[in-house]
Write a structure and sequence with these properties.
There is one protein chain. This protein is α+β, with helices and mostly antiparallel strands. The protein is built from two helices and six strands, in the order E-E-E-E-H-E-E-H. Strands 1, 2, 3, 4, 5 and 6 form a six-stranded antiparallel sheet that branches. The chain is extended. The termini are far apart.
Length: 180
């Protein structure tokens, strides 16, 4: 790891890890989704005591948490072999095929970022997005730290209000009627 950083590993798959095409030296951003399953308290009108009864909400929250993380190493499972012991040739799609493959990505992070990552690993899901290497060099090819882009995060209300997603509606199922 570079001086002043620590390394942490995250496990991704072909969907959450850009097709497992992330390689050593790449830069990634981390998008996290947290959907707590424990009861969340809320207050009704002027109440001073929180309640969970009747709470109707979607607790899912999505946010770009960390930006510009450098990939220090990646680990893929060994290539599949044929019955003769020869390695299966890689597909024509850049060395990956849609097979549910997992990948371990080792990231250089600060200790605070490591805490954030561990929290999401325990209580949510992680998706890595691959950054352009051009974001991390100036016009002369010298390394730079790109500007952090502030994002708002997304919850269901944001999707409805800002993106026009249609809110879910209740489905009323009539109670069974007694037989005559």
């Amino acid at each position: 790891c570079p001086a002043g950083f620590t390394c942490i590993s995250v496990q991704v798959d072909q969907v959450s890890g850009v097709g497992t095409l992330i390689k050593t030296g790449d830069f990634v951003d981390m998008v996290a989704s947290v959907s707590p399953t424990f009861p969340l308290n809320y207050f009704v009108e002027n109440a001073t005591t929180p309640t969970v009864d009747g709470a109707k909400y979607d607790p899912t929250s999505v946010k770009v948490l960390l930006q510009g993380l450098q990939v220090m190493a990646t680990l893929l499972p060994p290539p599949q072999t044929t019955e003769t012991g020869a390695a299966t040739p890689p597909p024509d799609s850049g060395g990956t095929a849609l097979n549910g493959q997992q990948e371990i990505v080792i990231l250089a992070v600060t200790p605070q970022q490591a805490e954030v990552i561990k929290f999401v690993q325990l209580d949510g899901t992680i998706t890595l997005t691959l950054r352009s290497p051009k974001d991390f060099v100036d016009a002369d090819g010298n390394p730079i730290v790109p500007e952090t882009i502030t994002t708002t995060g997304v919850v269901l209300k944001t999707m409805i209000d800002d993106w026009g997603v249609i809110p879910p509606l209740p489905i009323i199922v009539p109670a069974p009627t007694p037989l005559p």
